[in-house]
Design a protein that fits this description.
The chain is 23% helix and 32% strand. The chain is of the alpha+beta class and 269 residues long. Strands 1, 2, 3, 4, 5, 6, 7, 8, 9, 10, 11 and 12 form a 12-stranded mixed sheet that branches. Helix 1 runs antiparallel to helix 2. It is globular, with a radius of gyration of 20 Å.
Length: 269
């Protein structure tokens, strides 16, 4: 877990963002065993500065309530299959004329341009929406995002009837209302997961967000079948997959849980 050659390379080069990223990835990829893809986690954090009235470009941020300060976007490499180890690749301030989604998309694009391996990004609910799907439309990366449990997605439209304007949307699927759910394309049961016990995973293919009708996503629902200690069921985990490649449903949903490595990094920096 010591990367002396990485740190030396960073010290020897001038503070150029693209050059730093290229050197960093080259050093890391030489020391990490070759894998099918590189797993990165992206997150947005706030730095509260309510009393720093002379600090330029403060913004309203959410951190257990609305605060005044500055927002930062981080993209970190998650190199291990377990544990909380994360290697930050970029940690940049989000200006008042930008947004977390715009900054995260630019960071992901830069990583994909410099990486020799395919990239899989995992993101929380802030990015599980049409704005993020549209922002990464031209980026060669796969993304697994958590989706809010009250979100809505639509199926592909029916074939064109030949009259009037072609439809963009099919049937509406409201995640908070099971009566509106479409029939899942795939359902699997995992009897004895080493960490979560019995898990049922369902997948719906070829859905889309309303404002991103041209960007197809796969919707995934992971449910722990054993209830909590108080007898209540665990909250469902809704995920959206966007990308050219496909991973086995038995493992793809579990990739999202590796996202929490970036949260641990925030805690200790």
């Amino acid at each position: 877990r010591q990367w002396p050659s990485v740190y030396k390379a960073l010290q020897d080069c001038r503070p150029d963002r693209k050059k730093l990223m290229m050197l960093y990835l080259q050093q890391l990829e030489q020391q990490v065993p070759p894998t099918e893809h590189i797993l990165v986690a992206i997150d947005h954090t706030a730095w509260g500065r309510p009393d720093a009235k002379t600090l330029k470009d403060r913004t309203h941020e959410y951190q257990e309530g609305v605060i005044i300060g500055q927002g930062y976007s981080t993209i970190a490499w998650i190199p291990e299959a377990s544990g909380s180890w994360a290697l930050p690749l970029l940690h940049e301030r989000i200006s008042s004329w930008s947004s977390p989604i715009e900054k995260a998309a630019s960071q992901l694009k830069l990583v994909c341009e410099q990486s020799l391996h395919p990239v899989l990004a995992v993101l929380d609910r802030e990015y599980g929406n049409a704005s993020w799907v549209l922002a990464i439309a031209d980026i060669q990366a796969d993304c697994l995002m958590r989706v809010r449990s009250n979100a809505c997605l639509w199926s592909a439209p029916p074939p064109y009837s030949g009259r009037g304007r072609p439809r963009k949307h099919g049937q509406k699927m409201r995640l908070s209302d099971p009566t509106t759910w479409l029939e899942a394309d795939t359902v699997i049961e995992i009897d004895k997961h080493p960490e979560l016990g019995e898990v049922r995973v369902r997948q719906w293919q070829d859905l889309h967000f309303y404002r991103a009708a041209g960007q197809r996503v796969n919707l995934i629902l992971a449910e722990r079948m054993k209830p909590m200690s108080n007898g209540q069921p665990f909250p469902p985990l809704w995920l959206a997959w966007v990308g050219e490649r496909t991973l086995p449903l038995e493992t793809v949903w579990f990739k999202y849980l590796r996202r929490f490595g970036v949260d641990h990094w925030y805690r200790f920096v």
